[in-house]
Amino acid sequence: MTDRVAVLAHEMFPDRSKTANGVIRYADYEVAAVLDRERPGERVADHLPGVDDAPVVASFADVPGDVDALVIGIAPIGGGFDESWRPDVRAAIEAGCDVVSGLHYFLNDDEEFASLAADHGVELWDVRKPHDDLTVAGGRSADVDADVVLTVGTDCSVGKMTATMEIVEAARDAGIDACAIPTGQTGIMIEGWGNPVDRVVSDFTAGAVEEMILEKGDDHDLLVVEGQGSIIHPAYSAVTCGILHGAMADKLVLCHAAGREAIHGYEDTAIPPVEEYVDLYESLAAPVHEAEVVAGALNTVDVDDDAAARAAVDDFADTIDAPATDLIRFGADEVVEAIR
Amino acid sequence: MTDRVAVLAHEMFPDRSKTANGVIRYADYEVAAVLDRERPGERVADHLPGVDDAPVVASFADVPGDVDALVIGIAPIGGGFDESWRPDVRAAIEAGCDVVSGLHYFLNDDEEFASLAADHGVELWDVRKPHDDLTVAGGRSADVDADVVLTVGTDCSVGKMTATMEIVEAARDAGIDACAIPTGQTGIMIEGWGNPVDRVVSDFTAGAVEEMILEKGDDHDLLVVEGQGSIIHPAYSAVTCGILHGAMADKLVLCHAAGREAIHGYEDTAIPPVEEYVDLYESLAAPVHEAEVVAGALNTVDVDDDAAARAAVDDFADTIDAPATDLIRFGADEVVEAIR
């Protein structure tokens, strides 16, 4: 694994740079700089409280000191490569850096990057490229010794990956041998392993989750599976459903963003009443494996003061009839208590 | 398109050769022979009433006359290539035949077959290889002029592809300009086009369906989308869910096999009461696009006499609170009436 990294987040840091933020917050990297050509001179810690600080710079050439890797920290809908990033990726490779990318577009399939990487002896790690031995699920995830918890959501970008990492950290702090099961690019970058479930052959969606659970499930007491999308997402529900049935979780943590009224990017699709999600997830899970929504994780990043956030959390808890909190704002203790 | 074909179905014809049977029954091919090494000397019409007859032979060398293509007519769970089929595929290519395959294993990636095919100037059509321009759904399928009907199922192999083709045929007979939207290998082989939705990148599952609906939806009055799997299938529910949300169907036809008690190949997963499927499909569809189960298609192939089959159909209709029939045994008129 690389140690010191620069994180590319042009024009999206910090509000639309989910991957960058996750890597900065949870991975074992030392972050040398964030690249955002719209914010040179700003500081990471100004935007992401509680993380190690680093400068925001305009391009790879401005990153201070040597770095081992450039991490592509943004993921546009569709997962394409933005050609405006090419000079930075080129510069990184020419400086002897590996490049880590979670895009659908594989850097290894890009002729210029592949050729440059070979010339400079660096690795292009396409996190979203699945391995070749995936297959269909066998319905066996419930056989493992560990308890399995799955984070599920009302929408994309409500904080499932964050909730997963926070729950694992808090569970470990409480003395539980917990392990994250990463299913998306950010989780995989943070953990250093995992199947990119949104990129596998659709028939193998549940199988890709099951493979990870069988691999880790007898070595830990608690697996926390990173959910994806939402079961009513017009584009991504397939992945959500495959993870739900592939994980065969005992317990679900429902993640939601306070104030979200429509599916992100699909404004014609309203967010249904939150209690409907509880029914949908539980009734859809049950024929394969009984699962219960035992806690809620409410993302109140858009709520200004703590009192209003606390009220929103209490309201959310009442609605789903289970303990809830904002894991970042108020800590994960209530959720850990609910899943243990 | 090819005209005269041989259909490979070794050791699986007719009870486990869904693809072969579909091609024989619905495609515009002339079937010269079915290959099944366990049934040489038998006749196709002995097993599949109402189709054009053809001999069953032990190997490609025994196919009478010249054929244009060999169709791989069986699809084991997982979609692998059975090495025992290699001599027949080799012989077909050497005889100048194209080979049509719906396996997950691509013939074009097989060094021997690719090289032989190049030498003999024949095409290997890997039906399940998706095209490169697929992307995420935009939630736009409901914008087309056509009514959209989707066949959904309680399990795999209950007759969704058959129901789709029978409904399209019956609708055309009733004067409706209907078009099938094929989503699986058999449907694509029959129709000669289509996206193999179970083989696309999981994030693009709904998008692959939407692409087809947008392509055909303003040229016809009725689209009948071929469903896949089941919304509670331990392995394949992701594909089912993606099709449900990608199609944005107005009406659903619920397909079931009389007497089925557990998910095919997953005996630990019981088939829930059929009315639960109605609730699950409708409640899962609604947040994206309201859909109603308006008819049922019961596969009574395992029921011996017509009276018992009629009773089973009536029972199924009562359970789902909608008209139902066995489309093969009793015709599709009731279903066409319900969806028009």
UniProtKB/TrEMBL annotation, chains A, B:
Domain (D-glutamate N-acetyltransferase-like C-terminal): residue spans on this chain: 136-336
Record-linked Pfam families: DUF1611 (PF07755), DUF1611_N (PF17396)
Chain ranges of the D-glutamate N-acetyltransferase-like N-terminal domain: 38-130
Stored Gene3D superfamilies: NAD(P)-binding Rossmann-like Domain, P-loop containing nucleotide triphosphate hydrolases
Annotated PANTHER family: DUF1611 DOMAIN-CONTAINING PROTEIN, GLL3100 PROTEIN
Name of the protein in question: DUF1611 domain-containing protein
Native source species: Halobaculum marinum
